[in-house]
What does this fold into?
Amino acid sequence: MTQHIPQSVRERAAHLRAAIQKYRYAYHALDKEIISAAALDSLKHELAALERQYPALITPDSPTQRVAGAPAKEFKKVRHKISQWSLHDAFSEEEFRQFDERVRRLLREEYGRAVSPEYICELKIDGLKIVLTYEKGVLITAATRGDGVVGEDVTQNVRTIESVPLRLEKDAGIVVEGEVWLSTNELKRINAAREKAGEPLFANPRNAAAGSIRQLDPKIAAARRLDTFIYDLSYPERMIPDTQEAELRFLRALGFKVNPHFEVCRSVEGVLTYWNRWRKNASQETYWLDGIVVKVNKKEYQERLGYTGKGPRWAIAFKFPADQVTTVVKDIVLQVGRTGVLTPVAVLAPVSVGGSVVSRATLHNEDEIKRLDVRIGDTVILQKAGDVIPDIVSVVADLRPRGATPYHFPKRVSECGDGGLIERVPGEAAWRCVNTRSFAQKRRKFHHFVSKKAFDIDGLGRKIADLLLEKKIVGAYDDIFTLEEGDLRALPGFADKSASNLIAAIKKSAIIDLPKFLVALSIPHVGEETAEDVAARFGTLEAVKNASADDLRSVSGVGEAVADSVAAWFRNDEQRALVARLLRHVTVRPYHIRRKTNTPFSGKTVVLTGTLASFSREEAKEKIAFLGGNVTGSVSKATDFVVAGDNPGSKYDKAKKLGIRILDEKEFLRMV
It folds into this structure.
């Protein structure tokens, strides 16, 4: 039976929701306190009382719905509507100037004339990235970044954050991106409570924010007073303003909390002034900053600049100089990598830097050791390059102990097996194992093969991989896909359920995208970005296998060494046999999942120039690739079509000169 709700009660509830939303927005997004916190709590209390009396009044966007009920058993996976990119980094003035030069060069190539872009600078908050999806103005989903394609559904926890609007000022269907963060004062309060309870302390606000947003019980997240800044409207494209500055103001008008310290700079010097100012002022804020984000302000220029395999060409994270500390080198050890290259690693007296304790730092290669003149027993200056990788900057020579001698690579390394002989790679600073089949090398390759960057086999971590290798249950990659539950049950720590789960995870991983498959093979010089570029160019594994070094050199971003390495790897009989065995168990999805054949674009090389009304640059690229074509960035005799939109640049002129067929937008639409 439907509960009768008096009209006056309905109106009161609606007015309460609107008022609370207004005061919440003013306080969290505009830093204005229209009414006191106590008065606002009183309004929330009244609304909650009405909703308890009349449950039918409860709406998804009601302020009372910020804290959910029972804890979740696990987080669901969410496929992002828009791919989540990472930013390239700059760590110095010189590196930022190089970024500016690249932007100007690419724009000059696009427009056929010199272009002076404006930049917008925003503070880089050290928090956890969050992606919010709204339908008809109501928050539907909040997800973590994950691997950029699939994230975790943390909606229940994000609903507890007061600065996240549950309903927007407009009934829009949008996707926005931002950062969840925790104030330094809140971190102190949480850590004091954890210390009292005998629990481990959070190292820094970012760890605390990430740990809070991934709590299965939303009441824990609610108790930790998280906050947000939203900085990007990523969907739909038609709603995105013409500049990043206008976009930030639009986001604020929708009801989001936007960091107020953004600034448009008309020159590199302006960006450097902003960067230096915030280097000095960062500690004055209640949130952690690890740099600034610099973006080309004009959206048209952003679209023309496009993306690399990792992230946008029109934006860069300009990091602040890393925290530095001193510590002592206790030892120098050599690690065998998956390609047999030996990496020298300094074993350090444990020290806290950048919010985490560090006890090891890479020394990269023999030449770096000589340059630093680092010796066992030395006191060294350590920093976290990019706030991630521990890096030794220099030696404090005045503190060198008497008798410390220069480090020399040994003649043998036991982990290399078969006598342990090592050799220096001709023309490089690297040393490697002479024996290419050592167990240490195999371990590293297997660790990489099952990692998130590659096959991402849930439950098959380093310890399990080592166990399978040591017990000789597997000896080659393809053996993983022939495992049965009975093979696992005899291993320590495995029960029926865990064995069953691992076999299911292996079967699930047997369908893999081409870039990840290429990464998994441990081809020298091929990382995630190179694999993405190669996959985008050739589309299928068969095409990559048959590509010559010259073919590979034509891929943007692939140089001489990489092209030779990939071509040689696939020409090797043993490697080809390995791939053939893998393909008995594994399905490698083409780069664009499926590409149509027998279309006007099949096998054709296409160049885009100018602005299309019907597609963004990325959408047009995807459409051409889906129809079997390959999009390149420059016009040459090998180009089949040039698609010209409004205001085409120098590519249009070059195409006319070479007699290449030029498609206007109307003809392009007809063909696709």
About this structure: Residues 67-72 have pLDDT under 50 and may be disordered. The domain at 324-424 is CATH 2.40.50.140 (OB fold (Dihydrolipoamide Acetyltransferase, E2P)). The longest strand covers residues 324-336.
